[in-house]
Write a structure and sequence with these properties.
This protein is an all-alpha fold. The protein has one domain. The chain has five helices and no strands. The longest helix has 20 residues.
């Protein structure tokens, strides 16, 4: 099922990511998988904001939640970097210029 095009989708995606970061709950994995599933429906601007928020969180002091949640976020960040390169995303410099 495709996600319908809606100008609020990016905001909702960012809100879901921010809500679930640092929590020790199934929401971490759920949000990470949802973002991957619908990644190509977000605007370049939305992708950039999602990436920047996640990068700041992963590289920041924490708390990062349980170890499995921390790994979920690290894996998602790596996935986002790869997607930026593979899609030729105009924001790929942002994805790849930060570790």
């Amino acid at each position: 099922m495709d996600m319908p095009s809606d100008p609020d989708t990016g905001f909702i995606a960012v809100a879901a990511l921010r809500y679930s970061m640092g929590r020790q709950t199934y929401a971490c994995g759920l949000v990470a998988e949802w973002l991957k599933r619908y990644w190509d429906t977000f605007t370049d601007s939305d992708r950039k904001v999602l990436f920047q928020n996640l990068r700041e969180f992963v590289l920041g002091p924490g708390p990062h939640g349980a170890e499995c949640d921390k790994n979920t976020w690290k894996d998602l960040l790596s996935w986002m970097k790869c997607m930026g390169r593979e899609l030729g995303d105009r924001t790929h410099r942002d994805y790849n210029s930060h570790s």
